Amino acid sequence: MESLEPRVERSSAVEHQAPTLLPDLLRARAAEVPLWRRAAYFAGSGVCFALGVIFWVVPLVTGIPFYVVGLVLLAVASRRCRLWVNAFDRKLPRKARLAVRRALHKFPVRAVREMAVPFEG
User: Fold this and answer.
1) Does residue 8 form part of some domain?
2) Considering the entire predicted model, what is its pTM?
């Protein structure tokens, strides 16, 4: 027979010092992006993905940076892609998430930097 008293789980002191949770990588926009800007972001992401494929075939430069830039531009233009990027970001280890945030705040496109959550640290 089980006791009616609530079970108290014993835990170590390390578990009580949980690290601060990081917010989502890309925040939602307050206003809708104009259609012409969304089209430009989609076109830019298409160009970046094409360059990624080209540089994957031609081994001068790796194509991975172009894939990343294309994905970020697509996330700026598409709500669904932004939600997917944020869900994938939550699965990464904390060190990797911090490195992604550092790199994103050095991104040359101002709209992408504004969409990213401010980075502290």
Assistant:
1) no
2) 0.64
